[in-house]
User: Fold this.
Amino acid sequence: EPEVTQTPSHQVTQMGQEVILRCVPISNHLYFYWYRQILGQKVEFLVSFYNNEISEKSEIFDDQFSVERPDGSNFTLKIRSTKLEDSAMYFCASSDQGMNEQYFGPGTRLTVT
Amino acid sequence: KQEVTQIPAALSVPEGENLVLNCSFTDSAIYNLQWFRQDPGKGLTSLLLIQSSQREQTSGRLNASLDKSSGRSTLYIAASQPGDSATYLCAVGAGAAGNKLTFGGGTRVLVKP
Assistant:
């Protein structure tokens, strides 16, 4: 069964460093998403992406964040200058149509020290 | 602003009992509602998606209902098994493209053998 994959599973970085989280969505999907879950808190929407552009973003997704689909298979989330409060589990998701079921990857745990 | 609430936060039942999980949301202008399962430290597994025009969706032992006007959804799991122990999350889809998911805090379920 097709699935969303994410790498790395765990990333440790120092405050102020740039990180890139990578995702491979399900191959025939057209809509891509990033969510995050701070430990003990709700899953929060960050951004949705369709047709090579951002379709919606939350107030969390400020200028420090960016997304890219560098090729036909990868979808990346970049955080330019990490802060302690960026420590969270980051989930990538994809769907075939905008309002259809979203399939989530296993997540990348980001720890900022 | 959409708020999604799941009560209770935790639930413990003996094996074989039916599970009833509740989800409420404040803004009825949703496109869909999705139920997920999350195992500790893992990603989200999609269980069911109900479109806003539907009242009910079934998959095996799972049945989910949606009452948009009252802002409620219920997930029923029949004949619970220890393997059903997990956290169950509901998420409502809204936003400009209808695919921005807003999550509840989840119900942590323990099924005792």
Q: What stands out?
A: The interface with chain A takes residues 31-32, 34, 36, 42-46, 49, 51, 89, 91, 93, 95-106 of chain B (CB under 8 Å). Chain B has a mean pLDDT of 95. Residues 14 and 112 of chain B are 5 Å apart (CA to CA). The longest strand of chain B covers residues 86-94.
